[in-house]
ER membrane protein complex subunit 10 (Cyprinodon variegatus), 250 residues
Amino acid sequence: MARLLAFKAVIIINVLFSVCTDLAYCNNGRRGGDPLETEMSGFSVPLEHSFELDDVAKFQSRGSLLLKTGREPSVSLAQNQLSEDDRAKLKEVAAVDGLYRIRVPRVFLQADRQTEWQMEGYLTAFVRACAMVESHLSDVITLHTDVSGYLIGVSIVTLPGACRGTEVEDEVDLEVFNTTLSIMAPVNAPGPETALFLERMEQESEKKGKNPQEQKSFFAKYWYLILGGAIFLMLTNSAQPPAGGGREQS
């Protein structure tokens, strides 16, 4: 009887442990075997936009960029939906051929330097608001970095990029952003082949040293041609009749 009770107690403990494990998995959204560093390896910075009728920038939140650091930094984007008032204002700005602006803070793609963006200012880009409307909020945002991973530029284009005067429905096409986001780092140019150049120069020097005939000057190589040309000129001048000669009398 005691063995049976102990066996039941072990079964109950195992069931409770399994239930607790499942609850922990549901709460944190991470599998038990996933490392914690995966969630902590990046940091987020705000993405802001502005579209005003008076063309004076008044930036507000559009979303946030999640920058993941490493040898090959990556970026993901979480964006807000446009409110009804923002959709109406964007169409008004597009009607007067105004501008749609975005900006991101200057940051390093390094987790230990993520707070420096507060003192480094912002990077700004813009497109025509009408292009933003007619593209149904479909845009391509590219973050440009230098070799050290510091953000030095941002660009935005719409798909399509031209304004054709197409009518757009607010509720259907101007609510959710459809954005392609990427990071573009500089490509290292190939360095000069200095070693190969020096090797070729040494080989040419060795060839010239082995063949002294190549070291002769122009006159040493072609003296016979120069001498023949001089003799020819002398003979030609001596054969000509003297100028101002008298006529023969009959």
